[in-house]
# Entry
Amino acid sequence: MIRKSILALALTLFAISPLFAQQPDMQDGQPQAQQQPTRQQRRGGQGQQMLSPNFRLAGVWQQVQIYTDSAGQAQELFLPVWKVLQGDGHFTNFVMTYYKAPAFITQEGDFRVVSDKYYSERTRQSVVAPELVGVEVMMEYTLDEEKGEMILRFMLPNSEQPQTERWRRVRLEVPQQLRTQ
# Structure
């Protein structure tokens, strides 16, 4: 039940994000059909309409952690932490801490893809790391689009330890683990 609630929350945020809830073009008071960009155009490939490189990372992402179980097998643990990267360059991180407590936004700001390997985040507001407000943090990212996985490596200011985070793209599908047989 908790997983279904979390999934519903993430999908709701995905749907209401300005990236995906665009107003239709109007002509003579009538909405006009919008031509959707192709995958190649969204990824910055050849085409008539070039979109921001931010679209490559745009979406809802859930943080995961890899651990070794008692049998020595690597397992994924899906954390109640989400990152929403919007095509317009805004990001929001939020968490759900307890199933009886509401989710809350931990951090908001702007991001910018600077290359196929790096993007930067500049925090505008943070309830968990106020020292990051106004600071630009360069993130090295590895993106596996087929698996929907993004690995981030970065250094926080005043830290001597590099940070690594693993994220999974939230997709519009019922995860295999929740499907009934």
